[in-house]
Design a protein that fits this description.
The structure holds three protein chains of three kinds. In chain A, helix 3 packs across helix 4, helix 3 packs parallel to helix 5 and helix 4 packs across helix 5. Chain A folds into two domains: 164 residues, 3-Layer(aba) Sandwich (Rossmann fold); 70 residues, no CATH class. By secondary structure, chain A is α/β, with parallel strands linked by helices. Helix content of chain A is 38%, strand content 24%. In chain A, strand 7, helix 6 and strand 8 form a beta-alpha-beta unit. Chain B is mainly alpha-helical. Chain B has one domain: Orthogonal Bundle (ABC transporter involved in vitamin B12 uptake, BtuC), CATH 1.10.3470. Helix content of chain B is 72%, strand content 3%. Chain B is built from eleven helices and two strands; from the N terminus they run H-H-H-H-E-E-H-H-H-H-H-H-H. In chain B, strand 1 and strand 2 form a beta hairpin. By secondary structure, chain C is an all-alpha fold. Helices cover 79% and strands 1% of the residues of chain C. In chain C, helix 2 packs parallel to helix 6 and helix 2 packs across helix 11. The model of chain C has no long low-confidence stretch (mean pLDDT 89). The chains are: A alpha/beta, B mainly alpha, C mainly alpha. The interface between A and C is medium-sized, with 36 and 20 residues.
Chain lengths: 244, 287, 315
């Protein structure tokens, strides 16, 4: 089976700094892959390299076997790659509903041409993530947890095949984390492959089918969550001495 | 060859003055994030202050510069404190518009007060010049150039070496920083704008000794100041000297080789090119 | 509510359309100027208000439209309509060729780059022989102010319908998304480069048409007046005064500011410009989101509205 995403020896350098260093991995169809690592490990850079807002210095990203090199971000979105932002970036002046409608209007395959259709789909998506009550509110009036869900709804409205989540659980309380985990599971059950970047290890351990660890831009482990978290290198490099 | 040399000298002398004009604009832009469309109008106002000091109080335009600067500082401080501080957090359109409104008001006030006639500040030594081999250095222009460069460098040292200067530079990064220096932000903003306007006013006083003035010269000078700030970049006060010299020489060369009507094409064409190729300025940090 | 609004708009339109049949010559001439300014403000609204790019280059489109008509009619003896089309072609070419590099710039930098382009165009046209160099061109006169008035009104209706379409089309949503957050729009599938360029061109087409009508009406153009930057500032002021990013705001802003300006210059001739400047400064301080926002919110908040605006934006 063709993997949903294939990351091949991707490296990204910023002036004097290697943010992502020769990273390779696969994201299988219908899989939830967790990516963890300390701050500055290159997690967000990795997502930007896949979604196309950054270009890799070297290496290649393949989507369903097709190379994405040189392809602008909007075309990757239309192919079926959706992402959320860690620093939440709603369209502040638009209503919550219209924020999501943008995803339905453009998104995978170019989206709907008609606004009414797009809004209908946006409404369904907001119900799905539990923001159904806030459709008419302005996006910048939502609180932090609401914005996290809005980010998810915007990306989901694009009807992506691959969803890249950048710390959608950071700053949430335990109840909210459980709700988001349930949402992501439901997303996967619709056949979408999910890559989740997270800080909250407990949450990601129960959510992920597979776990990948980045440290100083390099991949230091990749495998079953339990065995990865037991891995001595990971424990030392990332978790420090006894911190789980 | 003599002609080319003379043109280069003229361009460079003009460029020094341009640099000083742009310095105030770049300072206000870099620190307060206000692109002041009224900057040229303040230069014009400064020129009239110097003109009146010279005509009615018989104060030499160069010796009178400190007075012009102080007067214009007060004007700038008042404008920022009374009006611009009210809108500094508004969207960009609004800051552009309000400074444009100020430009209109200042130009009309100048027209009502000073009339629309062309004037010059003509000290007794206006026609003197120094002959240096094949080139002629007009004395007034040379003096204006020297003062402009000295003030620009002085300004740079002030921003780098003094406590207030450091507070101003810190404010360009973020407002909280200003409080760390123990300066009240509203006051600091007003002082910064005041300094920018004082520089504009002094530049106007110098401009009046080398060129004709009327109430309408502001808009073109604002545009040139922009061009220089962009070419030189906003992070380094000395960038405006390079930008000013560049623009002055470029304009003189374009006027000589392509024709006087192309002088503006050259300067603005270069501005567009620089913006497209290096939006942070030729000397600025890479984006 | 919406039905009532539509009836009101149609009634206002009918009154406007009837002006040339009962108004004085002076009123008709004022009307033509005010309507063309409204077209410019509404055209700017597409790139400035909806897409969020503060263009100071729309006066270039206006100038290209003027010269399109003038060159076609004077130099090539072609009909007015062909001239208009020629002007539109010039404007679109300009929007595409220079829009693509310049639209990569954001914020102040875009504003200044377009401002500089406008300066360059003035100087270039002053040196083009076909365009009459800096002397300008004199067009064949057509003494039919009613026609010019109705043409201008028709163009205003057309540009306003276009903007209305933006508020409910995929294209318009893409533009608004770019204004609100360009990177966010790009990763959601908006082809930002294409959309910005199209918005710039669309904005330019209407400005060019306004310029073409104006040129034929006044029968004389020169580079200084055709590429006048203060015209660009005027359209921005009018759009922002009325409410940028709204359908009717720029039209209301343009018509009301034109009326204020006309009234001032007939009543207090010498200081009219001064008052205009003061109105602009006061408007930015007191109603930074324009008349449209005042209408929407004043009923709820009353006079506190103005104090709240100041509180929200002051240091």
């Amino acid at each position: 089976m063709t993997p949903a995403l294939e990351i091949k020896h991707v490296t990204r350098r910023f002036a004097g700094l290697i943010a992502v260093n020769d990273v390779s991995f696969l994201l299988q169809p219908g899989e939830i892959l967790g990516v963890i690592g300390p701050n500055g490990a290159g997690k967000t850079t990795l997502i930007s390299l896949i979604s196309g807002t950054l270009a890799p210095t070297s290496g290649d990203v393949l989507f369903e076997g097709q190379s994405l090199t040189g392809m602008p971000a909007y075309r990757r979105a239309r192919l079926g790659i959706g992402r959320t932002f860690q620093i939440m970036r709603p369209f502040p002046g638009l209503s919550v509903l219209d924020n999501v409608a943008v995803g339905a209007l453009f998104g995978h395959g170019g989206g709907h041409a008609r606004l009414a259709k797009a809004r209908e789909q946006a409404r369904a998506q907001l119900d799905f993530v539990g923001l159904g009550k806030f459709v008419d509110q302005r996006a910048d009036e939502l609180g932090g947890p609401g914005r996290k869900r809005l980010e998810l709804a915007k990306a989901l409205a694009m009807q992506p095949k691959v969803l890249l989540c950048d710390e959608v659980m950071a700053g949430l309380n335990l109840v909210e984390i459980d709700e988001v985990i349930a949402v992501i599971r439901k997303v996967r059950d619709t056949g979408i492959s999910v890559l989740v970047i997270e800080h909250v290890i407990k949450a990601i351990k129960s959510l992920s089918d597979r776990l990948l660890v980045l440290h100083h831009g390099e991949k230091i482990a990749d495998g079953e969550p339990d065995s990865v978290l037991a891995n001595q290198t990971v424990v030392e490099a990332y978790l420090g001495k006894r911190r789980i | 060859m003599d002609l080319l040399g003379q043109v280069l000298i003229n361009g460079a002398l003009l460029g020094g003055l341009y640099a000083m004009m742009a310095l105030g604009l770049a300072l206000v832009w870099g620190v307060l994030n206000i692109v002041n469309l009224a900057h040229g109008a303040f230069i014009m106002l400064g020129a009239y202050v110097s003109l009146y000091l010279f005509t009615y109080a018989h104060i030499d335009p160069f010796l009178g510069l400190p007075i012009t600067a102080v007067v214009m500082f007060a004007v700038g401080y008042g404008v920022q404190r009374g009006i611009l501080n009210l809108i500094v957090r508004a969207p960009m359109f609004n800051t552009l518009l309000i400074t444009f409104g100020l430009e209109v008001v200042l130009t009309y006030l100048a027209q009502l007060t000073f009339s629309a006639d062309f004037r010059t500040i003509n000290p007794s030594y206006a026609g003197d010049s120094i002959v240096l081999g094949p080139v002629v250095l007009p004395l007034a222009r040379l003096l204006a150039f020297g003062v402009a460069i000295a003030l620009t460098v002085g300004m740079w040292l002030f921003l780098l070496r003094t406590r207030l200067g450091r507070a101003i530079r810190a404010t360009a990064q973020n407002l909280v920083a200003a409080r760390l220096y123990g300066v009240e932000p509203r006051h600091l903003y007003a002082v910064t704008f005041g300094i920018g306007i004082a520089l504009a006013g002094a530049a106007g006083g110098l401009y009046g000794t080398v060129s004709q003035i009327n109430p309408y010269i502001g808009a073109a000078l604002t545009a040139k100041s922009f061009a220089i700030s962009i070419i030189g970049g906003l992070d380094n006060p000395l960038g405006v000297i390079v930008g000013g010299l560049f623009l002055g020489i470029l304009e003189s060369l374009a006027a000589l080789y392509v024709g006087p009507t192309y002088a503006d094409v050259a300067s603005f064409g270069v501005l567009v090119l620089v913006l497209i190729v290096r939006p942070t300025g030729l000397l600025g940090k890479a984006a | 509510m919406t039905a009532l609004r539509i009836i009101l708009i149609l009634a206002a339109l009918a009154v406007l359309a009837a002006v040339p049949w009962f108004g004085s010559d002076v009123l008709i001439q004022f009307g033509i100027n005010a309507l063309l300014l409204a077209v410019l403000a509404q055209g700017w609204n597409i790139i400035g208000g909806y897409t969020g790019y503060a263009s100071f280059g729309n006066s270039v489109f206006y100038g290209l439209g003027s010269y399109g008509v003038a060159i076609a009619m004077v130099q090539w003896h072609l009909p007015f309509a062909v001239g208009l089309a020629f002007g539109v072609v010039l404007a679109v070419a300009f929007a595409v060729l220079l829009g693509i590099p310049v639209l990569r710039l954001r914020g102040h930098y875009f504003a200044i780059a377009t401002l500089a382009l406008a300066q360059v165009m003035t100087a270039i046209v002053s040196n083009v022989e076909l365009a009459g160099q800096n002397i300008g061109l004199v067009l064949p006169p057509l003494n039919n102010d009613r026609l010019f008035y109705e043409l201008s009104l028709g163009l205003l209706v057309l540009v306003t319908l276009t903007v209305f379409w933006l508020t409910r089309s995929r294209f318009g949503f893409g533009l608004i998304a770019i204004r609100e957050n360009e990177e966010g729009a790009e990763v959601m599938g908006v082809n930002t480069t294409l959309y910005k360029t199209l918005a710039f061109a669309l904005s330019g087409v209407f400005s060019a048409l306004a310029g073409g009508i104006h040129a034929y009406w006044v029968t004389f153009i020169d580079p200084e007046s055709a590429f006048d930057i203060s015209l660009n500032v005027k359209m921005i002021i009018m759009a922002v005064f009325g409410g940028p990013g709204t359908v009717l705001g720029p039209v209301v802003g343009a018509l009301s500011l034109s009326a204020i300006s006309e009234f001032l210059s007939s009543e207090v001739t010498s200081v009219a410009g001064l008052f205009f400047g003061i109105v602009v400064v006061a408007a930015v301080v007191l109603m930074p989101r324009g008349l449209a926002d005042v209408f929407r919110r004043f009923r709820k908040t009353g006079w506190r509205y103005f104090a709240e605006n100041i509180r929200a934006h002051r240091l």
